Amino acid sequence: METTQVQKLARVLRVLVVAVFLLNLYCLTLVPGLSILLADGGPNTVMEAVKAALDLPGYEGMGVGSLPAFFLRSLWGVWWSGLGALLTLFFWLCGTCTAVILWQAKRVLDTVLQGNPFQRANAGNLGRAAVCCWIISGVALVRLILWLWAEQTLAPLFTYTALSVPAFFMGGLLFQVMSALFRQAAELKEDQDLTI
Question: pLDDT-based confidence at 44, cuts 50/70/90?
């Protein structure tokens, strides 16, 4: 069977989705260290640590290979910092939901590559992705409210956290609509297969 243009694009997209999924899992191991650095010194401290780890000029680095070890050692220390612990939980929850969304996308692309995308399973995959988007949106909203309360200023409204609340909420709605469309297409296909 000859592959269609859609299947060729799906193959490329699947490779990209798997690569981002693996990178996401790797980044989840770095979360405790980044949270401690953010809680202690803010974004500048994180950038200093990354520059040192990458051996950039002007920084006595520890090398890229020891970067995960540094952040994994931070796993114990992050729970003693209230802000660091909250940031770790927030990033882990969002990162886990992102990994689930990517895995569901991979499963949908697998069915496209098989030439049979209109299945009830894909409706379920897209429904799970919608729920994950809404979880990210809700957690980001809670973080934004806590941040506004702690800072007593409107500055947090002009951050990526504030932007992610409506973006992931709308993404969840889009996934839910696509889930309903795939479910309806699967039902029509089943009816058509029964009549033939």
Answer: low
Tell me if 196 is assigned to some domain.
no
User: What is the distance of C-alpha 179 from the center of its chain?
Assistant: 19
Q: What is the 3-state secondary structure (H, E, C) of the chain?
A: CCCCHHHHHHHHHHHHHHHHHHHHHHHHHHHHHHHHHHHHHCHHHHHHHHHHHCCCCCCCCCCHHHHHHHHHHHHHHHHHCHHHHHHHHHHHHHHHHHHHHHHHHHHHHHHHHHCCCCCHHHHHHHHHHHHHHHHHHHHHHHHHHHHHHHHCCCHHHHCHHHHHHHHHHHHHHHHHHHHHHHHHHHHHHHHHHHHC
> Domain of 35?
1-82
Classify residue 173: in a domain, yes or no. no
Task: Tell me the pTM.
Answer: 0.82
Residue 196 pLDDT > 80: no
Residue 116 has pLDDT above 80, yes or no: yes
